[in-house]
Design goal:
This protein has a single domain, classed as 2-Layer Sandwich (BirA Bifunctional Protein, domain 2), CATH 3.30.930. It has four helices and ten strands. The chain has a seven-stranded mixed β-sheet, sandwiched between helices. Helix 2 packs antiparallel against helix 4.
Length: 217
């Protein structure tokens, strides 16, 4: 069973350093069940490998270049971040290290099923293009209609995946300002609070997400 840890509020660089340490632990023992980490970051924009110049144009906070896939992503106190650190050779359905997309789809399913328990009908990797956007995207993530509620981006080292998902829980007027998250306009993003009319019970949300990650990953 996946080992669970809640790191609380932690700066992005410290969390990334700890993730790398956990990757080495998992890589050194193929029988290791892996880790599921929950945390929250102070406001920061991270630049994935597919970031384009127009993704960040007036963001006033810290910016960090990282090794995960995807484009520019916002992390902040209005989100819950989930970092599964798993050996892809041992993960569910025996998916091999070449099946990163299958892992992403399963991760999306875990978030979709979590949202369903809060009355939100969501889908992973929307098949439709969002009209009027400035850039193409593979739409990886979790969507409610044409609005994005969770952004996903991972990296793989020694067949162990890390990085993960940022789920928008609360409304935050400063989030996504001065950037195009994942290549989309900031207005594309939506939070549970906006959809439900009130913030979700945080501990209940964590417990539910943990349950579904254990089921699908």
């Amino acid at each position: 069973m996946i080992l669970f840890e809640d790191w609380g509020l932690i700066d992005y660089e410290s969390a990334l350093k700890k993730q790398i340490e956990y990757v080495e632990i998992v890589a050194a023992n193929e029988a290791h069940p892996g880790f599921l980490i929950f945390c929250t970051h102070p406001a920061v924009v991270t630049l994935g490998r597919q970031t384009k110049p127009e993704d960040v144009f007036a963001w006033k906070g810290p910016v960090i270049e990282i090794s995960r896939g995807g484009r520019a992503t916002y992390h902040g106190p209005s989100q819950l971040v989930a970092y599964p650190i798993l050996n892809l050779k041992n993960s569910r359905a025996g998916r091999g290290p070449q099946e990163v997309r299958g892992y992403l789809r399963d991760f999306e399913k875990a978030i979709v099923e979590t949202l369903k328990e809060f009355g939100i009908d969501a889908i992973g990797k929307t098949p439709q293009k969002v009209p009027g956007e400035i850039a193409e995207s593979d739409e990886t993530g979790v969507w409610v209609g044409t609005r994005k509620i969770a952004s996903l981006g991972i990296a793989v080292k020694k067949w162990v995946c890390f990085h993960g998902a940022a789920i928008n829980l609360f409304q935050d007027a400063e989030a996504f300002q001065g950037m195009n998250p994942c290549g989309f306009k900031s207005s594309t993003m939506v939070s549970l609070e906006e959809l439900l009319g009130q913030p979700p019970p945080l501990e209940k949300f964590k417990e539910t997400l943990r349950k579904h990650c254990s089921q699908f990953l």
